[in-house]
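Action item from last meeting closed. Structure (421 res):
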C-alpha cells in the first residue's frame, strides 16, 4: 500500500488551540459585552462578496485591492472575493437591505478576514477582527462614541499601555488640497524614494506617509501637513471630536502623519498603538497597530448609494489576544467517575444533572477501572464524585480538593437518592 501524505495547513493560517484559543474567546466575549453597553447591534455578514464590492469601495490603488485579495471565479463565472475587511460588505448590506431605515445604525460583528500578505508574527493570511460601525451619523459625537467603545474595550481587556493616535484628513476639499501639495513635495524627490513609494506617488501620495521604508522617512517628516489645508468646517469638526474625547475621558495624542491605507476615509482617522518601550510594544514587535479606523463619508457613493456619513473601526483579534496573554483553561467544577462499567448509566445521569444545574462537568468512564479515579484526581477538578458498586450496594465517594467543593457536594447529596435509586 502506498503511504498517503497528510495535507499541510495553508501558509498564513493558524490552528488556534488551548490557552491561545481561550485568549481569543476572551477578546470576543469582552467585545460582545462592551458593545452591548454601547447599544451596538450585532450583524452577521457573508464571508464573500462580489469582487466589485471591495474593488470599488476600498479603491484600486490600495495594497488590499491591488495585491492582497483572494479573488476567484465561481462555477457560475462570477468574480467573488473572500472579504479582506468588514466595512465594504456592511456598506453594501446597508444599501441592498434597506438598513437606511435604522439610521443612525450602530452595528458590531466579528469573524475571519483574508489577505494575501507575507505571513509573520501578528500578520496572517486568514486573521480575525472585531468590528464596529456607526452608519448614517454625520455628527462628531458619533466618532466620540465609537472611540469611547474602543477605549473601554481595551481597558476591560486589561491592555493599559496602548494609546489612541488621532488625526484628521479633513473634508473632501481639504484632503484634495493636501493631496496636491503632497504630490508636488514627493515628485521633487521621486528618485530618492523607495520603489514602493515611487509607485504610489501618482496614484495615492497619502500612502507614502504610511511608508515604513527608511529611505522615505526624511521626506515624510518634511512633507506638508494637513493642518495647513483644513477648511474651517473641517477644523471645527476635529475640535468637536477631540473635545468629546476629553469629556469622555479617552486619552489621545495627535498624530499629524497618520493616514489610513484605504481611499474612503474623511475627517477622523485613528489607530491604537502600543506606547514606545511598553510591554505591548515588545509583545507585538513591528506589527503593532491593534485597532484602526476612521470616518468614511465617501464610501456609500462609490457603491452607488446616496451620500451617507459613517465611521467605524476594526481590531485584530489575534493581536489583542497576544496582549491579553495566554489564558488558562479552567478546570471542571466536578468530575464524575464510573469506577466500574455497571455504574456508567448512573454516572451519565449524574453528569447530565450537574450540567443542567450550571456546573461544568467531565465524565470518566473509560480506561482501566483502577486508573479512572487517578485520572479524575489529576484533572484538578474542584470536586470528584466517584460511583462504585460493592457488596453493600452502590456507594459514592465524594472527594474535595477545594473550598468551593462544599457547594458541589451539597448538590450531589440532593440528587443522589434519585440517581442511585
Ligand atoms: P497594517 O498596517 O498592520 O497592515 P492595516 O492598516 O492593513 O494594518 P486594517 O485594515 O486597518 O489594518 O485592519 C485593522 C486591524 O486588523 C489592524 O490594526 C490589525 O490589528 C489587524 N490586521 C490587519 N491585517 C492583519 C493581518 N494580516 N493579520 C493579523 N491582523 C491583521
Ligand atoms: Mg495591511
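Sequence:
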Amino acid at each position: 500500500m502506498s503511504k498517503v501524505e497528510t495535507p499541510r495547513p495553508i501558509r498564513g493560517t493558524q490552528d488556534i488551540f488551548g490557552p491561545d484559543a481561550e485568549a481569543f474567546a476572551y477578546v470576543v466575549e469582552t467585545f460582545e459585552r462592551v458593545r452591548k453597553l454601547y447599544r451596538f447591534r450585532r450583524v452577521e455578514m457573508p464571508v464573500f462578496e462580489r469582487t466589485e464590492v471591495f474593488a470599488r469601495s476600498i479603491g484600486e490603488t490600495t495594497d488590499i485591492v491591488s495585491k492582497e485579495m483572494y479573488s476567484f471565479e465561481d462555477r457560475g463565472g462570477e468574480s467573488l472575493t473572500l472579504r479582506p475587511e468588514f466595512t465594504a460588505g456592511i456598506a453594501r448590506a446597508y444599501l441592498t437591505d434597506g438598513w437606511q431605515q435604522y439610521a443612525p445604525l450602530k452595528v458590531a460583528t466579528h469573524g475571519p478576514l483574508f489577505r494575501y500578505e507575507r505571513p509573520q508574527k501578528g500578520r496572517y493570511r486568514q486573521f480575525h477582527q472585531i468590528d464596529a460601525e456607526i452608519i448614517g451619523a454625520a455628527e462628531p459625537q458619533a466618532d466620540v462614541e465609537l472611540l469611547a467603545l474602543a477605549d473601554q474595550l481595551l481597558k476591560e481587556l486589561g491592555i493599559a499601555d496602548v494609546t489612541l493616535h488621532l488625526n484628521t484628513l479633513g473634508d473632501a476639499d481639504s484632503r484634495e488640497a493636501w493631496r496636491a501639495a503632497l504630490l508636488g513635495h514627493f515628485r521633487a524627490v521621486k528618485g530618492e524614494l523607495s520603489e514602493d513609494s515611487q509607485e504610489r506617488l501618482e496614484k495615492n501620495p497619502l500612502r507614502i506617509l504610511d511608508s515604513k521604508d527608511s529611505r522615505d522617512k526624511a521626506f515624510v517628516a518634511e512633507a506638508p501637513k494637513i493642518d495647513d489645508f483644513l477648511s474651517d468646517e473641517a477644523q471645527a469638526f476635529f475640535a468637536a471630536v477631540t473635545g468629546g474625547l476629553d469629556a469622555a475621558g479617552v486619552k489621545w495624542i495627535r498624530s499629524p502623519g497618520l493616514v489610513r491605507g484605504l481611499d474612503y476615509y474623511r475627517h477622523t482617522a485613528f489607530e491604537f498603538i502600543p506606547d514606545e518601550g511598553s510591554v505591548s510594544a515588545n509583545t507585538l514587535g513591528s506589527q503593532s497597530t491593534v485597532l484602526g479606523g476612521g470616518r468614511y463619508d465617501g464610501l456609500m457613493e462609490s457603491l452607488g448609494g446616496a451620500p451617507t456619513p459613517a465611521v467605524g473601526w476594526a481590531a485584530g483579534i489575534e493581536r489583542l489576544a497576544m496582549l491579553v496573554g495566554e489564558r488558562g483553561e479552567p478546570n471542571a467544577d466536578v468530575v464524575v467517575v464510573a469506577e466500574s462499567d455497571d455504574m456508567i448509566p448512573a454516572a451519565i445521569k449524574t453528569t447530565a444533572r450537574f450540567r443542567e444545574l450550571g456546573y461544568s462537568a467531565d465524565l470518566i468512564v473509560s480506561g482501566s477501572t483502577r486508573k479512572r479515579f487517578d485520572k479524575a484526581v489529576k484533572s484538578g477538578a474542584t470536586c470528584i464524585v466517584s460511583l462504585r458498586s460493592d457488596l453493600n450496594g452502590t456507594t459514592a465517594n465524594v472527594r474535595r480538593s477545594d473550598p468551593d467543593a462544599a457547594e458541589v457536594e451539597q448538590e450531589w447529596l440532593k440528587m443522589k437518592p434519585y440517581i442511585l435509586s
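Note appended to the action item: Residues 85, 115, 117, 122-124, 127, 129, 261, 287, 289-292, 314-316, 318-319 surround adenosine-5'-triphosphate (ligand 1) (CB under 6 Å).
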